[in-house]
Amino acid sequence: MKNFLFYLFLSLTTFSLSQQSKIDSLTVEFRKAKIDTTKAKILAEIGIAAYYTNFDLATTYNDSLIEFSKGKTKKYEALGYRMQGTLQLISGDFNTSETSYKKSLAIFNEIDDKGYQGALLSNLATLYARQNEIERADSLYLQAIEILKDVKNEKQTINCYINLGINALNANKLEYATNYFLETLELADEQNNKNYQLYSYNQLGTTFLKRNMYREAEKNLVEAEKIGKEIEDYSGLMNTYNLFGVLYDEYKNHQDALDNFMLSKAYAELVGDKEQLSKALVNAGRQYKFLNQLDEAKSSFNRALELSKTLNDSSRITFINLNKANLLLEQKLIIKAEESILEANRFLPKIPDEDYHVTYKEIAKNYSNIGINDKAYRYLKMYAETSDSLYIKNDLKKIADISAKYELEKKEKELAQNEALVLKKELELKTKQRYLLIFAIAALVAFAILLLVLYNRIKRKFNAQKLKDAYQQGLNNYLTNKYNLKEKELLLWLQIVEGLSEKELAEHFFKSIDTIKNWRKSLYGKLKNEEEVFRQKNAIDLYHKENESYTTHKD
Length: 555
Hints:
Helix content: over 70%
Shape: globular
Order of helices and strands: HHHHHHHHHHHHHHHHHHHHHHHHH
CATH class of one domain: Mainly Alpha
Protein name: Tetratricopeptide repeat protein
Largest sheet: none
CATH architecture of one domain: Orthogonal Bundle
Radius of gyration: 29 Å
Keywords: Coiled coil, Membrane, TPR repeat, Transmembrane, Transmembrane helix
Number of strands: 0
Pfam family, one: TPR_12
Structural class: mainly alpha
Strand content: under 5%
């Protein structure tokens, strides 16, 4: 698992470098472009590429797109506001996100662009769903579907149906949710849309987990992982590994659960999803606790808490504090545990989360273990009050036992206190602190060594990539000079070698199919001998032949 995480780290680093290279290339194109709409289009592409490397940088580029587009191109101004709304939504800034989305929708209404009108209604519905305004969200999704069907936008239509499924899932209408996701999976299969296949499999995995159908959940998550790796969808894989972690937790396989939560954390950090990062951290913290790695658990809970506070997520702040308090009680750090419980109570939502009752039970157990039975009794009562009747029945006897024990110990409390016991506990505490300090120093040294090893490996990888890029640039110059190619002809030849169809080439170069045909005719005319019949296979074979010839020449 450690090796896998290391190679994942390297692959993510390589991905970030490739996105930065794309940004640099697009920046050069922007400087060369003369037409305003072309410049705006390139700025939009830069913003999307920056999204995968640096969230703040993506925001800066997108703000530049909005300012540049004003008075020049309404479409790209509206697209800028739409991306701005999405960035704000991911950051948890719901009010400004709504304002940005509505600005974008108003412009698309003005220019009568039905496709983007439907897309913006879907964006707004997602925003309202994130704020638990489910009826308002569902109404907008249905409006969006009607518009999107008219313009035959199948992808956005599927997206709306998926979100209706998510709302059904959140409302605990699990059979409805299953049917929605099975339907969207079927539509995604018809269109061979890998992204929506991945998303549907993830949501089916979630639904089956909630229905306690673990085998079905695992089957769908295996399919999601396979597709996610194939298309390198890091957001999708982030969710897949989080769900695998939940599944292994149900199986009580805590090490595998932790490994998957850490993978989810790594992908969440890459794509800048703070909400999912917080979830992954608290889930990882719980697994660390089960594995008795208490320092790692505490660190994970603390970071999750910081993120949840930036997102103003009161439910998650409460849940993390309760888990942190439980951990501190296991370490017999009672005062610090009480501080976390107080903070949890300050953020407690009006409608408690269904996960709280299990944590209340764990807190009660730990209070009982350290002999504070009044609070054990209190939290066991809270557990019973927030549990379903099935849970309550199983624990009524425990409540009665702890209640009786509490009443007895209240009478004997003064006899249990003596100076010798206090001194003994102080000595134990000092010894523990000494060991913790030694452990922390050793961990710091080990971490420094690990960082040095990682730096050297990444440096070698980076140098190898530079050599590869230099070789490719040399080959490109060689081909351009030998066949007297224009830049667009060379780029077309390189994409033909990748096996792209006419339609895919048109989409790649943002040109019509007729333009691509003309480019290809010009290219083939320079590559072939007179009277030679020349097709895509000939172009591919010639490229590989020239590549081999160039390699031999370089050697």
